[in-house]
Specification:
Largest sheet: none
Radius of gyration: 18 Å
Strand content: under 5%
Number of helices: 8
């Protein structure tokens, strides 16, 4: 997206998204946010098929562009998705690594609009994202001899795997890739219990972990 600064690019993309949504008004009805950490497919009943409205999910990245800019602007970054060169400074100066940034879970509102095609990751991209998390992030805990990364590591993995499940809810895919992703997410939560069960409750909540493994 054209723009000389992150602020400009975010503003231009936001204006584009707004114009696109005005062409195709629709909302997800009966989408009742819950305090439960589980992503239950039965709680979501779109009034209009997401696939029929959005044609086809086209986001080729692990995290859509506009939200990457917003996360960078508002400093809502994890140590696992920042440019290594920026990590030597305070967290307020961290810069997003657009290659490593992964969509995180955020609770939906009751009047959430139907996602645009460029906001939804296709099943193949979700599978690639899950593979990246397992290959590049999941084993980082073993390298952290100081244990200082245990909490941010778990929070990062939890939010990113929940976001994968959320995208699955939006699209209702099926097939071996989908089944494989769900199995790997469950395995992450099982291994999380084994690795972190002795950590303080502010670092690891076994109840929430168990709920998300279902």
């Amino acid at each position: 997206m054209i723009g000389s600064t992150v602020e400009d690019r975010a503003a231009n993309l936001q204006a584009y998204y707004k114009a696109e949504r005005q062409k195709r008004p629709a909302v997800l009805e009966k989408h009742t946010p819950s305090d439960s950490s589980q992503t239950d497919l039965s709680r979501f009943e779109p009034a209009t098929s997401v696939r029929s409205m959005a044609n086809r999910d086209t986001c080729a990245d692990m995290f859509q562009e506009l939200e990457r800019y917003f996360r960078d602007l508002h400093q809502r970054l994890s140590v696992f998705e920042c440019l290594p060169s920026s990590l030597s400074t305070s967290s307020s100066c961290w810069q997003v690594d657009h290659i490593r940034a992964v969509k995180g879970y955020e609770r939906s509102s009751a009047d959430q609009p139907v996602p645009l095609p460029r906001e939804l990751r296709p099943t193949a991209v979700l599978h690639r994202t899950m593979a990246y998390l397992l290959a590049s992030i999941a084993d980082r805990l073993e390298l952290d001899t100081s244990c200082s990364l245990w909490k941010p590591w778990y929070e990062f993995m939890l939010a990113r795997t929940r976001a994968i499940r959320e995208d699955v809810v939006q699209q209702r895919p099926c097939g071996p890739l989908f089944v494989g992703m769900m199995e790997r997410i469950a395995q992450f939560h099982i291994s999380g219990t084994a690795r972190l069960m002795h950590q303080p409750s502010d670092s690891f909540d076994n109840r929430i972990n168990s709920e998300n493994s279902a």
